[in-house]
């Protein structure tokens, strides 16, 4: 993902800059561009929001020809418009405008959020330095990394989690599974403690995701790293809202930690190793506790 700054004066210039940016990153599926709107015309359309100058927005550009399931920008736009119609809470991002070029590239305009959950927490933490001990290196030249001590109160942490849960409650009430809840998809506007859920590019709409996935055979290659639910690791394809709830639970371990580290620190961990870490940390569930895994167990037994 490439982030570039451009100044927009009108809709045509915006399109030109967007596609030029894409050409500079041909291997990237999508590009996020932070821009300063100097002209209200940039956000013309059904959801015109750009009402004052110098309003910062985030523009997500997707090369639709390069999209592979479960990614689908057209369905993302459809969902975002539905959220607006259903009066989504402040915990769900707003689609300000959308336009296309040559019917292949889609640009979605969103409010600009300055912080992800992780960066917002770090802004409210004390920063220290931690040395990596090596007896063969002089103590003054040992490499150091930034460490953080959280200053978040219990009440503040609870409000953040309640905000994300409120957003998920809205989504689930509409039959939408987000499928990629993680700190990078939970944003904040400045120092405002209201969390905002973003990125619905791989979300699932019940009952069959606009005819692309049946309810009993959903795509399991979703989620990110340590935030993947156990059913995804076992390829239990009839999963439901629980994958979002599990991810929120792992996010909670970050929010309420003293060192701003989630329960599993290796965020790029492979699925097989993550599976072992989940069971060693939280225990191994029985089929009575986790009946959804019974089908998977039967398949293994037959083999």
Automatic annotation (TrEMBL):
Protein name: Protein kinase domain-containing protein
An annotated Gene Ontology molecular function: ATP binding
UniProt keyword annotations, A-Z: ATP-binding, Nucleotide-binding
Cited SMART domains: S_TKc (SM00220)
Family from the record: Belongs to the protein kinase superfamily. CMGC Ser/Thr protein kinase family. CDC2/CDKX subfamily.
Regions annotated as coiled coil: none
Biological source species: Cyberlindnera jadinii (strain ATCC 18201 / CBS 1600 / BCRC 20928 / JCM 3617 / NBRC 0987 / NRRL Y-1542)
Gene Ontology CC annotations of this record: cyclin-dependent protein kinase holoenzyme complex; nucleus
Cross-referenced InterPro entries: CDK (IPR050108), Kinase-like_dom_sf (IPR011009), Prot_kinase_dom (IPR000719), Ser/Thr_kinase_AS (IPR008271)
SUPFAM superfamilies according to UniProt: Protein kinase-like (PK-like)
Pfam entry (one): Pkinase
ATP-binding as UniProt keyword: yes
Signal peptide as annotated in the record: none
Gene3D superfamilies: Phosphorylase Kinase, domain 1, Transferase(Phosphotransferase) domain 1
UniProt xrefs under PANTHER family: CELL DIVISION PROTEIN KINASE, CYCLIN-DEPENDENT KINASE 10
Every Protein kinase domain range: 18-303
Top-level taxonomic group: Eukaryota
PROSITE patterns: PROTEIN_KINASE_DOM, PROTEIN_KINASE_ST
GO BP field: positive regulation of biosynthetic process; regulation of mitotic cell cycle
């Amino acid at each position: 993902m490439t982030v570039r700054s451009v100044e927009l004066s009108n809709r045509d210039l915006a399109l030109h800059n967007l596609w030029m940016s894409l050409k500079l990153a041909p291997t990237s599926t999508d590009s996020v561009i932070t821009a300063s709107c100097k002209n209200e015309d940039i956000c013309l359309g059904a959801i015109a929001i750009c009402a004052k100058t110098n309003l910062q927005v985030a523009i997500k550009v997707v090369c639709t020809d390069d999209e592979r399931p479960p990614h689908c920008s057209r369905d993302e736009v459809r969902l975002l418009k539905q959220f607006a119609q259903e009066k989504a809470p402040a915990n769900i991002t707003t689609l300000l405008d959308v336009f296309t070029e040559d019917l292949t590239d889609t640009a979605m305009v969103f409010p600009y959020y300055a912080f992800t959950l992780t960066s917002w927490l770090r802004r409210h933490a004390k920063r220290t330095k931690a040395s990596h001990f090596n007896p063969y290196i002089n103590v003054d030249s040992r490499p150091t990394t930034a460490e953080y001590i959280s200053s978040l109160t219990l009440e503040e942490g609870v409000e953040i989690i309640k905000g994300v849960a409120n957003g998920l409650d809205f989504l689930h009430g509409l039959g939408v599974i987000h499928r990629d809840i993680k700190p990078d998809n939970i944003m904040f506007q400045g120092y405002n403690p209201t969390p905002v859920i973003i990125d619905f590019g791989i979300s699932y709409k019940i009952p069959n995701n606009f005819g692309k996935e049946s309810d009993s055979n959903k795509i399991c290659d979703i989620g990110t790293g340590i935030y993947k639910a156990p059913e995804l690791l076992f390829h239990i394809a009839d999963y439901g809202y629980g994958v979002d709830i599990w991810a929120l639970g792992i996010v909670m371990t970050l929010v309420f930690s003293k060192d701003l580290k989630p329960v599993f620190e290796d965020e790029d961990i492979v699925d097989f190793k993550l599976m072992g870490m989940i069971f060693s940390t939280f225990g191994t569930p029985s089929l009575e506790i986790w009946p959804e895994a019974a089908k998977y167990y039967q398949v293994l037994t037959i083999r």
